[in-house]
């Protein structure tokens, strides 16, 4: 049984700590059951389900740190793992950046667990795949898709009395549909904690519409265009920026937030004043983990026990940089609060729908998603990538025709200074982000890819 | 049971432009465990027979079993600090069966005979369940059993036998050299991987393999706080299918390039490269920004390898061509009709691309693939024409072939094997030519070295590549360092602009150590060999911006 209750998890963690002889010891225990189904060419290619339950012990002597992991839970195995972590710690070189463990913390409860997702089984997954494939087959479209669901928990504890427990569920679905002649392609994706919100059929309909509407694409000259970015496209680019808020990099002079002459851009107006971005683990639409560390993401356990509580944090307010993220070491050496990096974020928008944004556009390009985004220059956060699976020319408030895919070279920093309008935020890829209209977005070349 | 963690790296580690995390597979174990043997070949054969017999008795028409032990040792440092050392082991059994023309797969970390038999039964049950919705029955190309055989990476020094302290000492020397020569910051890493794989199949193969890989790398950062600028330079090493001897830094494996630059063949001098890197990172801070336009590019093997990987390697994967990766990595422009035409000019006549899993010192080289097929070399592009693809046993019939070319790989015992890229390499010229000779013939060009930013579309037409070092070539001479360089092209146009190749003496391999593919994602490691090569009239853009 991979999913333990809070009490069951605590019992194991307490037992592990009772074996500890090191100066400090922390334990993380995480379990999950992950199921997936993958299909292509309108038929299921692979499907599977795996259970994981893993425990990681970290032992510390002075500033020497060692970790060991185990997936057996009898007393003897647990004790052996503690001894192993201690042995590894004794032999480890000193970590000069080691910071002593946190004491007991207060964690909020988040709405990240949904029973409906926990109940998913192979038959449910097969039906979800069928609901996506069937309408495509009937329209002579080819579907390739993937759905992955996870039900799990993370529990953390240490020898200073810290304890945290967080159960969660998640489901991610994406589908690409292509026309039989390969000239049209559409994509749609959804992610939720609660699978009852997911309709693979409705999601697939969107991808189908895009595939059918994107055939016979015309070539437009590359250049600067007003773009309407669907939330998936906007989220991917801005998410990269949100991963680059580390204060240490900025203070060391090697971040887009470093200041000419030394120092950082904290407190400076950096973006259009309509830009406000925050993180909040208590948000019901994108509930986050209440604490840092202990793993629990889609890659399973591990990650060690950081233990800092995740709190509502304002990163950008009215275009001004309000916070940067800190490791505990860097915060201690600077004498500031150790704000952890955000897990998921919320960008405020307006009340307009995507359709409203299109309606108000005289000339522009509607972008479904971006693909193969890679950093070009970390100094300016310049990224390159391509549009994919549904790119359209908009004129006088209407979608006129599909256009060939473009390569872009653009920085989210420049983008968020060129905001024309923000729509109503929606969840995509674990973040809440509005569709947005941006002027002077740089497309640098054309691609023949469909 | 799988523990697949990602180590998040602080600072601008592991290439400032790469995702700052690396996958760790398995349980954290003490370093000593990495050298303790597990089961020997005879014991594994017994366990494998349990799986094969159980599968057959439940109705499988074909079965294969992989008893795999995957060992990793990763070291991470920055400046004069050791940040992290991980030793990981993953051990278990994966069983794949065909029932009613349908694949089934199951895996277990319990390697006792009864658990293995149960696992085989699960694989059969999954195949039976999937058979109901199967539209294309599996048709395996024949493979004669090879009996009881073994294969080992030919290595001189098993990296796992080298004491951790010696490795730390090396990285501290590397970091010290970088800091003394102008670096503001430096991160350095050593990655060692050992796959101990036992494969058996109902064809009558029992294959024991011991595969080693190594990747030393670093990133040096130079900062000019007054100007508010920073620049990085990554190591010009390559991940290799070798032991610790790759770090010997033999003078005989150094290749003198234009402008005093040094290339490394099968032996790498990490301290020397770090020393040079720090100076070059500082030089980048004041390098001239590039004037956009058309240039003749002279591409060093340590750079061109990635362009080959993205624009030819991935484009000639048969599963992509057929649409199996449509929802994730994408499909391919190199469609079957182009191949069937026998006249699709992928590149100029100089372009001869071979696929292989046999080239010494490379990441893709093994004795047998993960479905028991002996490895070999074959042509993908001959005299510029697309002639073949990369395929596995269940795909090769689509090409009218009767023999798999051995491209099956799984990244762990609990991952299902599928088509992965072999080494894909560009053959050197037969006439004598060094990189310095090549530069002499270029009037307006740019010489590019190292792996930089890379991006390509989902059908592998349009790409953009950066690099680590850019030098302007004016009238046959290196005229100084350039900055803000990236080139954009279309795969077919680019390879048809291939105008000149250097010779075998200049030939080196580039490698990709954590190449991702599939859903759920799996990693693999692959090399790409090539000589320094010239491409005419390629579009160069300026990537400098102000924020």
TrEMBL record, chain A:
Record InterPro entries: Metalloprtase-TldD/E_C (IPR045569), Metalloprtase-TldD/E_cen_dom (IPR045570), Metalloprtase-TldD/E_N (IPR002510), TldD/PmbA_N (IPR035068), TldD/PmbA_sf (IPR036059)
Pfam families found in the cross-reference section: PmbA_TldD_1st, PmbA_TldD_2nd, PmbA_TldD_3rd
Metalloprotease TldD/E central domain segment(s): 125-214
Residues annotated as domain Metalloprotease TldD/E C-terminal: 222-444
GO biological process: proteolysis
GO molecular function, one term: metallopeptidase activity
Keyword Endoplasmic reticulum: no
Domain spans labelled Metalloprotease TldD/E N-terminal: 27-89
Domain of life: Bacteria
Keywords: Hydrolase, Protease
Family in the record: Belongs to the peptidase U62 family.
Name of the protein this chain belongs to: Putative Zn-dependent protease
Source organism: Larkinella arboricola
Taxonomy of the source species: Bacteria, Pseudomonadati, Bacteroidota, Cytophagia, Cytophagales
Automatic annotation (TrEMBL), chain B:
InterPro entries: Metalloprtase-TldD/E_C, Metalloprtase-TldD/E_cen_dom, Metalloprtase-TldD/E_N, Peptidase_U62_metallo, TldD/PmbA_N, TldD/PmbA_sf
Residues annotated as domain Metalloprotease TldD/E C-terminal: 292-541
Domain Metalloprotease TldD/E central: 160-247
Annotated keywords: Hydrolase, Metalloprotease, Protease
GO molecular-function terms, A-Z: metallopeptidase activity
Name listed for the protein in its UniProt record: TldD protein
Organism: Larkinella arboricola
GO annotations of cellular component type: cytosol
């Amino acid at each position: 049984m991979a999913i333990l209750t809070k009490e069951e998890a605590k019992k194991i963690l307490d037992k592990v700590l009772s074996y500890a002889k090191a100066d400090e010891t922390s334990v993380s225990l995480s379990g999950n059951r992950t199921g997936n189904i993958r299909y292509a060419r309108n038929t299921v290619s692979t499907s599977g389900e795996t259970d994981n339950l893993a425990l990681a012990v970290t032992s510390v002597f002075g500033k020497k740190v060692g970790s060991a992991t185990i997936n057996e839970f009898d007393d003897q195995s647990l004790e052996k793992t503690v001894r192993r972590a201690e042995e590894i710690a004794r032999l480890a070189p000193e970590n000069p950046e080691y910071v002593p463990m946190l004491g007991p913390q207060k964690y909020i409860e988040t709405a990240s667990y949904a029973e409906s997702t926990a109940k998913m089984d192979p038959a449910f997954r097969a039906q979800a795949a069928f609901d996506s494939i069937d309408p495509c087959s009937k329209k002579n479209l080819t579907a390739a898709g993937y759905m992955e669901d996870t039900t799990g928990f993370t529990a953390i504890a240490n020898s200073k009395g810290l304890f945290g427990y967080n159960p969660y569920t998640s489901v991610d679905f994406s589908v690409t549909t292509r026309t039989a002649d390969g000239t049209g392609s559409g994509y749609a994706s959804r992610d939720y904690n609660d699978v009852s919100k997911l309709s693979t059929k409705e999601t697939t309909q969107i991808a189908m519409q895009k595939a059918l509407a994107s055939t016979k694409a015309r070539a437009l000259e590359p250049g600067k265009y007003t773009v309407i970015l669907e939330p998936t496209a906007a989220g991917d680019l801005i998410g990269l920026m949100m991963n680059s808020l580390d204060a240490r990099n900025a203070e060391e002079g090697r971040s887009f937030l470093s200041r000419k002459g030394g120092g950082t851009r904290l407190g400076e107006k950096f973006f259009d004043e309509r830009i406000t971005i925050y993180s909040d683990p208590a948000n019901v639409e994108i509930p986050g983990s209440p604490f840092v560390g202990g793993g629990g993401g889609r890659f399973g356990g591990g990650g060690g026990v950081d233990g800092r509580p995740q709190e509502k944090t304002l990163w950008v307010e009215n275009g001004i940089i309000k916070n940067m993220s800190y490791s505990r070491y860097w915060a201690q050496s600077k004498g500031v609060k150790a704000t952890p990096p955000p897990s998921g974020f919320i960008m405020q928008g307006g009340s307009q729908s995507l359709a409203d944004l299109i309606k108000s556009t005289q000339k522009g390009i509607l972008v479904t998603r971006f693909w193969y985004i890679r950093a070009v220059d970390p100094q300016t956060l310049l990224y390159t990538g391509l549009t994919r699976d549904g790119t359209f020319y908009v004129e006088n408030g209407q979608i006129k025709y599909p256009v060939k895919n473009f390569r872009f070279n653009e920085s989210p920093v420049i983008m968020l200074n060129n905001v024309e309008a923000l729509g109503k935020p929606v969840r995509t890829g674990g973040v809440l982000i509005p569709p947005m209209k941006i002027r002077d977005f740089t497309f640098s070349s054309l691609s023949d890819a469909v | 049971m799988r523990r697949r963690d990602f180590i998040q790296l602080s600072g601008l580690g592991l290439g400032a432009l790469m995702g700052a995390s690396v996958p760790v597979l398995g349980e954290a174990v003490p370093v000593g465990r990495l050298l303790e043997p597990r089961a020997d070949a005879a014991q594994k054969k017994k366990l494998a027979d349990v799986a094969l017999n159980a599968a057959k008795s439940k109705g499988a028409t074909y079965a294969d079993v992989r008893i795999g032990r995957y060992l990793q040792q990763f070291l991470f440092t920055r400046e004069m600090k050791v940040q992290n050392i991980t030793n990981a082991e993953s051990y278990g059994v994966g069983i794949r069966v065909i029932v009613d023309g349908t694949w089934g797969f199951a895996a277990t970390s319990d390697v006792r005979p009864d658990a293995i038999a149960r696992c085989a039964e699960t694989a059969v049950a999954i195949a039976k369940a999937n058979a109901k919705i199967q539209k294309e029955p599996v048709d395996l190309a024949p493979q004669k059993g090879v009996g009881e055989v073994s294969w080992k990476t030919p290595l001189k020094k098993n990296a796992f036998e080298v004491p951790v302290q010696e490795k730390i000492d090396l990285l501290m020397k590397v970091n010290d050299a970088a800091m003394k020569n102008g670096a503001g910051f430096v991160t350095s890493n050593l990655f060692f991987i050992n796959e101990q794989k036992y494969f058996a199949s109902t064809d009558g193969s029992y294959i024991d393999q011991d595969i080693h890989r190594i990747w030393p790398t670093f990133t040096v950062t130079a900062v000019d706080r007054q100007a508010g600028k920073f620049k990085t330079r990554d190591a010009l090493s390559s991940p290799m299918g070798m032991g610790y001897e790759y770090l010997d830094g033999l003078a005989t494996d150094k290749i003198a390039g234009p402008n005093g630059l040094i290339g490394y063949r099968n032996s790498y001098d990490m301290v020397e490269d770090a020393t040079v890197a720090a100076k070059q990172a500082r030089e980048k801070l004041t390098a001239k920004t590039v004037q956009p336009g058309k240039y003749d590019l002279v591409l060093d093997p340590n750079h061109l390898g990635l362009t080959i990987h993205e624009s030819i390697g991935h484009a000639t994967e048969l599963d992509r061509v057929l649409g199996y990766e449509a929802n994730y990595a994408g499909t391919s422009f190199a469609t079957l009709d182009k191949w069937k035409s026998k006249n699709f000019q992928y590149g100029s006549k100089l372009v001869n691309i071979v696929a292989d899993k046999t080239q010494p010192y490379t990441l893709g080289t093994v004795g047998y693939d993960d479905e028991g097929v002996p490895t070999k070399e074959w042509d993908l592009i001959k005299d510029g024409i697309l002639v073949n693809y990369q395929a596995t046993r269940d795909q090769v019939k689509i090409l009218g072939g009767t023999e798999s070319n051995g491209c099956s790989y799984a990244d762990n015992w609990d991952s299902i094997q599928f088509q992965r890229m072999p080494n894909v390499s560009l053959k050197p010229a037969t006439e004598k030519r060094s990189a310095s000779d090549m530069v002499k013939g270029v009037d307006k060009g740019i010489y590019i070295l190292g792996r930089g930013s890379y991006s390509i579309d989902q059908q592998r037409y349009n790409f953009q590549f950066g690099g680590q070092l850019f030098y302007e070539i004016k009238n046959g001479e290196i005229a100084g360092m350039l900055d803000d360089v990236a080139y954009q092209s279309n795969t077919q146009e680019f390879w048809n602009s291939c105008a000149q190749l250097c010779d075998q003496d200049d030939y080196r391999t580039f490698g990709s150590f954590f190449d991702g593919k599939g859903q759920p994602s799996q990693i693999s490691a692959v090399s790409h060999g090539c000589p320094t090569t010239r491409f005419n009239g390629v579009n160069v853009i300026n990537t400098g911006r102000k924020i």
